[in-house]
Input
Amino acid sequence: MKPAKLLTPEEVVAVFAKKFGKGILESRITERCEGVGKRPSYDIWLDIDRDTLHPAVRELIAIHFPHLGVISGTDIGDAVELNYHFSIYYGTKHGEYMVTLTVALPKSDLRVATIADLIPGAVFSEREKQEMLGVEVVGIPDGRRLFLPEEFPEGVYPWRKDETGIRDGMVKDLWAVGRPANRPARPAIPPEEEGVVQAAEVAEAKVTAREPAPAEEERHE
Amino acid sequence: MTLIETILAAVGGTVAMAVFGIVAGLFFLGVDRKFAALMQARIGPPLRQPFIDAAKLMRKENIVPENAIPWIFNGAPILALASAITILLYLPVGSIMPVLGGAGDLILVMYLLTIPALAMVVGGFASGSPYATVGAQREMVILIAYELPLAIAIIAIAWRLSMAGIADPFSLTTIAANPVWGVVGPVGAVGLLILLGILAWVTPAELSRIPFDAQEAETELAGGLLVEYSGKNFALFYLAQAVKTIVMAALAVALFLPWNLSSFVAMAPAVAVAADFVFFLAKVLLVVFFSISLIRVSMARFRINQIVSIYWVWLGLAGFVGLALVMIDAILAGV
Amino acid sequence: MSDDPQKKMTPYTVPIGPTHPALKEPVMFTFQMNGEQILKADFAPGQTHRGIEWMGMRRNPVQIVHLTDRICGICGVSHSLAFARAMEQIMEIEVPERADYVRTIIAEFERIQSHLLWAGVAAHELGFDTLLHLTWRVREQAMDTIELLTGNRVNYGIIQVGGVRRDFTPDQFPAIEETLQYYSDLKSKLLKIFLEDKTIQMRCRDCGVLSYDDALKLCTVGPTARASGLNMDVRVDYPFAAYGDLAIEPILPDAYMGETRGDVFDRIVVRLLEVDQSVDIIRQCLDRMPAGEVIAEPKLAKLLNQFKKAHGEALGRHEAPRGEVLHYVRMDGKEHPTSWKVKASSYSNLMSWIPMLEGEQIADIPIIVASIDPCLSCTDRVAVVRSGERGIMTKEELHRLSVEKTRRLSA
Output
C-alpha cells in the first residue's frame, strides 16, 4: 500500500488545517538530525479538539494508512491529555513522519470516542488508557482491563496525579522494609566451617528472635 | 517336572526378567540421554541419572488431583509397568529362551504392546486435566496409527518363515532360532530392510519419543497424559518406559537380529549364555541408538495429523512394498 | 476442570498460562477448542505488570535510563536508546557522532543475539532441541562481544542521556571483526538447517498466517509485520543514530522466498536474514566511525541540573529486535518527567496472536505464540495456591522467603 503522493510535513499540517479549521488548536513540526549525515526525521504534533479526533484519524487514513504506535496520556491537572502517536509513510526510505494527535479531556467529562472502528489494533492501547487514566473510551469493542489485576481496586488510576492516583498505602517500598522480625533461625554451623563473612551474619542472627521454621516452609524447599 | 517346579521356575523367571528389564531399561535410558547430549554438543547427565531420577521420584509425595478418579489414577501406572514386564516374558534375551515362550506367540506380543499405552490413556483420562485429556486422545490416535505398519512388518516375517516350511512361524522361539535373513534371497532382503526401517520408525511412537511424542509434547501439553502424575505413580510410569525401551529393542533384535555368538563360536554352555547376553545388550544398544537417539535429535515434533498420515500413508505404503518384495522373493524361491 | 457441566461439553476450554512450558514469560491464554482445533482465542497480559512507568514518573532521567535497561532482559539497549533519544530531543542535546555509531553497533549486536535466542526458542517449541542447543551455542559469540564492549552480558548500562558511557578501545576492534567473520561464515549453515529441514517446513509453512491487512490494521511492527509483507523498519524509514548514514534495506520474505505468505516460516526467514543484515550494518559502522567524544555532558550533576530546566515533549523511537520501540516523555521543569509512556515492540504485536491462532491446532500454539517473539515482563506479585486457598504474596514475603532460602543453601 504505497501512498499515492508524498507530502512534506508542512503540507500534511496544511491538509489538516484546511479540513478542520478551528478543530486544530495548535500545530508544530519538530526536526531531529543525527549521525554524520545529519539526515532529518520529522515529528508532526497537532493539538486537536476532542470531536475532531475521529474525523482526523479518518483524514490520516486518507493520506496513508497510519501505523498506530501507542496512545500515551498525561494528567495535567484539570484535564487529561491523550496523545495518539501515529506514523505515516513507513516503507519509504527516510520518509516516515510521526504524527501525534493530542486531545485534552477535562476531568469533568473524561470521554473520548474510540478509533478502534478505524484501526482495530487501537483497542489494546485504549484498554490500557481506560484502566491507567480513568478515561472512558466511548464505543470501545472490548472494555476489559488489560494489565491491571482483577483484584486491583476500582476507581484507582495509576497514572493520575490527583486523589484517584496510587495512594500512599498501596506503595510498598521494598528498600524500607528492613529485616523481617519473624525470620526463622539459621541452621547452626560448626565454627571451623565458618568464613569471616558468615561470622558477621551469625552475630547478627543471634540478636534476632529465634523462632522455629514452620513445617509448611520446609516442604516447599 | 512337577507343577510346583513349573510354577517356581515361572515365578523365578518373572522376577529375574522384571529386575533385568528395569535395570537394563534404566541403563539404556541413560545411554540414550548421553548419546543425545553428545550429538547436541552437550556434556549430558551421567549414565546413572535415570536410576537417580527413579529413586528420587520413589521418595516423593504422590499427589492425586481433586478431579481425578483415584483408583484408576493410581492403578494405571501399576498396570503399565506390569504389562510391560509381561511382554518381556515372551521375548528371548540372547540365548535365554522366553520364560513363557511356550504359552504365547508374536500376535500376543503385538496385542500386549498396546496395554502399557492403554494404561497411560486410562490414567490420562482419569487425571481430570484438559492437558491429560488431550494427551490421552492423541495417544489413542497414535496407537491406532502405528498398528498398521507394525503388523505388516511382523506378519511379513512370520509368513516368509512359514513359506520356507518352518513350523510354528509365529512363535518367537522359532523366529529367534531361524534368522529370517538366512531364508530369503536378495529381493527378500531388500524387503526385509524396508521392514526393519519401519520397525525403527514405529519404536519412537511406541516409546513416546520425538518426533512422535505428541501425546506428551512438553511444550504444548506440559507433559500431556503424565501432566498430573508425580512421586511414586510417575516413577512407575518411568520404569514402565524403561522396560518398554528394552521390550521394543528386544523385539527388533528377535525379529531382525536374532543371531547369537554361540552359534558362530564354540563355547562352554555357561560362557555361551553370558557371551550371548552381552552380545544381546550390544544389539539393543544399536537399536536404541538408531531408532531412538538418532531420530529424536534430528527432527522436530510432528503434529498429530502428520503422525497419522506418516504411519498410514507413507509407512503403510512402504510396508506393503516390503511385504510385496518378500512375497516375490518367496515366489522366486519356488515355494 | 471442575464439575461444571458447561466445561465438559464441546467446544471445551483449554487454558494455557499464566505459566506453561510453551510460554517463556507469563501470559494467560484461553482457548475454545473443538477437538484439536482452536475455535476462539483470547489472552490476558499483565500477569506480571511491574508499573515501571509509574516508577519512572517519580525518578530523574538518569535513574530512568538504568530502569529502562531493565525493562527487558534481552533488549538491554533498545529501551535505553529510545528513552535517551526522547530526552535529548526535549533538551536539544547534540549527541556526539561517535556516540551515534557506538549506539548503533551495540544495538545491532543485540539484534544478533536476540534473533538467535529466538531461533533457539522456536526450535525448542517445535521439539527440535538439537537446534536449540546449536543456536544458543553460536549466540554466545555475540554475548561475549557485547560483554567485551559494554562490560555486561545483559543490562548493558552503556547508554546515557547525551551519548554513551564508554567508548570502544582500539584493542576491541579485532574481537569485533572476529565475531562478524564468525557470523558471516555461519550464515549459510544457519539458513540451511532452518529453512531446508523437512520437519521445520512441515510444522511452520502455512501455519499461523497473518495477512497483510491484519498486520496493518492490528498495528504490528518489526519482523512480524515484515514477514506479512508490511514494509516497515524504523531504521530505514526514520533516520536516527547512525542509521541515516548507512545503506540498509528492509528484509522482506519475498526477496528470499519469492513470495510472502505471512506464516511462521516467513518469520523465521526474516529473522535469520536480519542476523546477516546486522553483521553488514556493523561492518558499515566500523568503516565510517568518526573519532571524537562519546558523551555530550560527562558531568552527571550538571546533567541533572539541566533536567530541572527542561520543558517539552518528545518521542524516542528505535527499531528493537522485535520491532518499533517508542518512548514518549514529557518534562515540565521538574526533576522527574510529568509523563513517560513506554511502548515496547511486543505491545504492538500481541493483538496479532488472535488471527494467527484461530483455526489452527493445539500443536501449533507454542510455535505461533513464540513466532512474534513475545517479550512480556517480570514479577511484581505472585499468586500462591496452597490447600485450595488463593493468596497473593507480597514483595516482603517473597523477599523474606528468598533470603531464607539463600541462607539455607549457603548454610
Observations:
- The first strand of chain C starts at residue 12 and ends at 16.
- The first helix of chain C runs from residue 5 to 8.
- Strands of chain C lie at 12-16, 28-34, 37-44, 159-160, 163-164, 311-320, 323-332, 339-343, 382-386, 389-393.
